[in-house]
Amino acid sequence: SRHGVLVRCGRGGGTLRSESKGKAARGRIASGGMEKKMEKKRVELKKLSMGDLKQKLKDRGMTPFGSKPELIERLIAEEFKPPPSAAKPKADDGVFAEVFGPGGGERVDLDAAEGGHPSMSLEAKKDKKDKKDKKDGKDGGKDKGDKKDKHHHHHKDHKEHKEQKVHKDHKEHKEHKEHKEHREHKEHKPHKEHREHKDHHGHKDGAKDKKDKHEKKDKDKKKDSAHGAPLPFSFGAEAAPADKLDEKDKKDKKDKKEKHTKDAKGNKENKEPPRPTPMGQSPSKRPRKGDQQDDAEDFWNQLSVGMEFLPEGDGAAAIEKDIAASPAVSAAAAARAAAEEAKAEAARQRAAAAEAAEEARRREEELGPPDEATAEAMMAAEAALEQDPNRERRVPLTAKQAEALRAGGQRWLQRLESIARMSTISVGPGDDGAVEAKITGAQPGAARFAELCLRCLLASIANETVELRVPPSAGDADGAVDILEIPEEADSVLVPQRLIEEFGVLVAFVHEKDRIRPRPMSTPEQLELGRALGLALGQAVEVRYGEDWFHAKVVGFTEQGTVSVEWLGGGEAEMSPVDVRAASIAQMPKLHPMHGRLVLIGEVRARTAAKFRAMCLIDGRLPGHFAERCPPQPTGNLFGFDVAVVPLPSADGGACARQRQKIAAASEAVVEVVGKHAFIAGEADERRRAQAFLTQLVPQAGPFGDATEIPDELGDCCSKVRVPLTAVTSVSGTARSNLSRIEEETRCLAFWLPPGAEVMPRAGELGAVGSAGSIMISGGAVSEVGASVEANWADAWHNATLLGAGEADGCVRVQWEYDGSEQELEAAHVRPRDDTTAGGSSASVAGGSRGAWLRGARVLAVVGHERARVAAVLQVLAGSETACPGLWTGALEEAESEARDGKTEEEVLCGVQAFMHDGSTAELDWLRSSSAGQQALRHAARAANCVAQIVGQAFFFAGFPAERSRGREYVDWACRSRMQQAIAHLRGGAATGRGRVLSVVEADMRDDVTIMVVDEAQAAFLRPDRLGPVERELSVLIVLDDGGGSAMEAGSKRLLICGDAEAQRRKARERVEALAAAAPPLAVAGAAGPVASAPVAVAPDTQKRPAIAATGGDAKRPRADPRAVLKTIPWPSTINQWGQLQNKIWAGHPKLQRGWIRCWSRSQDSEYYLRLSDKLTTFNINEVLAS
């Protein structure tokens, strides 16, 4: 260093550093730095996985094999590999030869290369060069003074720093010593006196040392003047001989040494208690060649001989003062160094022992246990550990597995939690820093079951298998586990992950771990032969067979010199040693056979469905394996969940396989067609319905779905609906396409019954008593009891009075006017009297048409769940209404009864209610025709949990009363909000004026509505196409209203999230907030226009038409404001003038259909549209926009 001596010591490469401020005696051998770096690197590598370690070896061009500790040590050895050692110069003998042995005294010239030691800083090198120039007499005048001042200030700073450091060291040493001696001897006072006495002598010695230093300095200057240049610092062979030194200088040093030693010994004998000796020897003594009793003080005294490079001025005196107190400091430093060295040595021994134990364990695993009993004990221990019901489980995870568990909103973790409900699974770093899954159970066995679920899931995702010492059995975990044996011939037919995705269960192949085999018994001859070949019994090898290499294990050696090996997967062979080589990996790779024990975990219905699907797939590869040889066996549970195998009739022809999903949905059972058999699972009534479908109804139905009759087993899940003959084609569609679509949407099955099939009487039909006591008679006319009618008798019509309904179905009682007698006639033979129907009311006309349409109508039987049946029937009614307008909308009461299959409201769970549409025709057309309107209708029905269907001009709602009420409101809200959004989007802005603007006044008081407030930019961004996925996934409806009278801040809009389930609304709000956060600024969003409601275009006598905004339309140019343009030009007075000014007044507006032009109404202050061909006008822009 700048003010000290740096010496390279001995052949070990250590370093002794003598510093200038009292630390000359505290020189230490710098060792252990490389060990610390290696240990730090070892800790870092332990955190990596095996794959990462092998990749690092590959990157360095090394073969990746061995256990994890071996890989780590190989990487460390490669990284810290010492460079090739250069030839060393011959060492000199001298004082270092006595300490470090022969060859330990290599010469070190600190003034080499003019710049000093290479470890010096640039400033230190510069100062040293200045000092050398000064001694050589090269400095002059002012430069010499500047350098001297600079050196003086630098030395002063260095001195202050060193004094602080020495003071701190003395303080720490004093506190440590006081604490130790107080604990051992409880003699605080003598210790204090000793310290004071020592400090007093140190002060006196320091003053005398300072005086001696000044005298020595003067002599050195005289000596330098005599010789002309200072003597270079050197030692060993080139050091100045002792007899050439100044005799007085040697005498002064000797006197100082004797006095200092005498004072130290006196203080030690009188005051200082004995010090403990660390590690069994004195810290001040260091073993060396020769005299073993020499201490560090003797070493530094010998080292000081011939050293002339010392600082000038006060620094020399400070050094001499510190040297006087150096023995105690040296002893403490040596004690600390010895303790650290002992601690490091103990750590190295522990690490070596652990590494040896790990190597022995790995070797034992590779070779196997020594005997059969040990192998059995090891397997029993593994089995006991796996089956421990109370043990907390920790499953190590790779980075890829942890990422897969967290992907998709943690859907896999949610799947695990839904199946293993009594356990808690958390993924995070473990104690060693590696990622792991920690599993805890709320009851015994829960954690074990959760671990099985997790391992099955991870194996299925990676297309691997699970290996356990004790595989699960059917019925484990309270019946949540099912087992299916897959033959080896069907290997890889099943993909467990597909079954997991389709059925929501956990599926994986689980195999028993291979038995632990004892290591092969070897004779001395075999061991010797193996050593000669470089192989060992039980070693993993690679064997060449033909042109390829295969994995195997050595099991023995023969006298002929061949090697007996066992192939991976079974089988043994004797191979020539030239065809056998050590395996490139420590262990043979694991095989993952996709056959054997297939474990299915989950709810009983879901896992049974997955099991049936697996059987069907295997039977496709091995026909008859499950259908005939290994069919599922029923448990004999007559009333609960069970399975059944039903042989299909010969007339099936594949119809049951094609209609399997519809049969399963309609019967609500699990159905799978396997070969010529059908596997059925479910409750007793579900199995009964499925069997009726499979054996009676579906196989006998023709290509158009005609059935002779409905089996009695399906009578309680069947509804019948009448379809006029003129509407059969409309309802059925080409090649039954419409009916197939209705079946898929509603998950029902529909069959045409033979002509003349009867249905239950409907409310409001001929002879039936309707509301207010009305009775329907011939022609669909409705007559009140007591009304005058005409009745047919003997093919002649006579006047009579209607008395009421008859006893027989479809009959009425009348009283003849000519004699007053009463008679019961068929309602079809009674008609209103001509004078009562004069004028031909629309109801009578419609009734007459209805009677003709329903006379001889076909009957369609719909089979399925009640709510699904009603939905299918309403779609059939809509198709009939399209072909026969007014058929059902002319008699809503009878239509409701038709949807209920003639039953009353009290007899059904899913009631039906119909309402005529009270809005505009445009709204109804938008709901019925546009894709956005149909989507709004479906989402409103799903949010209300009801069935909604448009039939002609009427809306039909099915469900519980509260659901029907909500459904009607939601449809109206969706129509008002969404249609206005579409119109506002086309216009580019919201219009003002009266109209059907959505305003939900009681929104904040409803328990089915969640309110959000968004700004205009967010409202414009939240279009139905962006909100549609949220509504569809969470069964909610999201609309915007005008605030419902609430005080809203300027630029704010109110968003209503509607739905029956609060949890779904909460999730929807989170999704909407995330969408709103991505909304662009208002300036960008303004081009799309606000989403707030705009008035519907209706007739000019009911609404004031707003002006079209000045944005949107043609993106190539800005949209003009018609009002502003018309104020700047003369008002057009003819159609021709309006046509010529179209591009000027309505520049940038959407194009109209060919033949239409825009005009402006002064009275309505709004635009309207005129067709040139017939002068037809309309205010509805939707009717005239170009497609």
How much of the polypeptide forms β-strand, as a percent range? 15-25%
Oligomeric organization of the protein chains: single chain
Report helical residue fraction: 40-55%
Rounded to the nearest angstrom, the distance between the terminal CA atoms is: 90 Å
Report the sheet with the most strands, covering strand number, pairing sense and barrel closure.
5 strands, antiparallel
Strand order of the largest sheet: 12-11-10-9-13
Taking all residues together, what is the mean pLDDT?
75
Tally of DSSP helical segments: 37
> In terms of per-residue confidence, which ranges show pLDDT below 50 for 5 or more consecutive residues?
1-31, 85-122, 137-162, 165-173, 179-208, 221-245, 264-294, 303-313, 836-847, 986-995, 1083-1116
Radius of gyration, CA atoms, in whole angstroms: 51 Å
Shape: extended
Coarse structural class: alpha+beta
Please give the number of β-strands. Answer: 36
